[in-house]
Amino acid sequence: MDLRRQDATPRSGATAATLPAMIDWTPDPIAFSLGPITVYWYGVMYAIGLAASFFVIEREARRRDLDTGILVNGMIIVAVAALIGGRLYHVIDQWDRYKDNLPSIVLPPYSGLGVYGGIITGFLVAYLYARWKRQPFLTWADCVAPGLLVMQAVARWGNFFNQELYGPPTDLPWGIPIQCINRTATWACPESATWAGPPLGTTPVDTHFQPLFLYESISGAIGAIVLLQVARRVRWLRPGDIVLLFFVWYGTTRFLLEPLRSNNWTVGGIATASIISATFVLGALGILAWRHRPGARGTAIEAPPVEAQPAEAPLADGLSDDWLSDALSDAPPPDAASPE
Q1: Which terminus has fewer CB within 10 Å in the chain: N or C?
Q2: What is the rounded average pLDDT of the residues 99-113?
Q3: 21, HSE (Cβ side, Cα atoms, 13 Å)
């Protein structure tokens, strides 16, 4: 039975959409096979996105005179950490899908990653890696931020091939068809000649849905351009401002789109991603306001380096008594200037 063809074909007697559909087919999630090895479009799109982000991050690092020699190893380490965190977040989010088949959590195809899980673990490991290499973490984070949005713009198309990350039914021309087998319980197909398996619902087989993956992809592309332009044109930035703007941009996008999703992880009836998004946005805006308050300590990115002056004896961890200011001003580790 060819479910893709049957799901994309209107049922006889169905009411025509108000606007003609531009997308009336469902893709094959498999890109190609080499013997027993099956390569999925989901992985291909993430690989392309990772390569595109590397290109952006490297250019930004060179522009800031950072040591790009550590970038390849750093990206591998951080990418693995982000993959683990993203997978863990997804499994918790979709626990009903995995609780009866635990091996599917780690066995291919790896068709689900939670962005916020990847961001949290990725940034944590990136911070530790930067400290280990005695590199300015916030400056590197500013380089990484637009690269993350570029990756988002590309990798979200993996969700299209996997038939996921869609919203409610729509008659808009860019609505996408979703196979019955890939629908959440909220939008399940009714029992019919073309679909006899569970789950059962009332949403017609030929229904089109909001392409949330497309909205996130467009937002990622626009956001990357905005951050790159701000980094080049705004003269009063401090290290870390660009990554804070990333959290504002992505958090706002996700907060606006999350209510359109169904069957997502909730806490007290509120989508967990919405709570995290609001926390990121408000937290980033608050830190930006605090860092740029009148009389705030620190200099702009373009300011020339100032020779360090004698100060009070550092604490055991190498930070001064004003540890919060040190953390937010991208102070390097105590021996950062010493050659390795």
Answers
A1: C
A2: 72
A3: 21
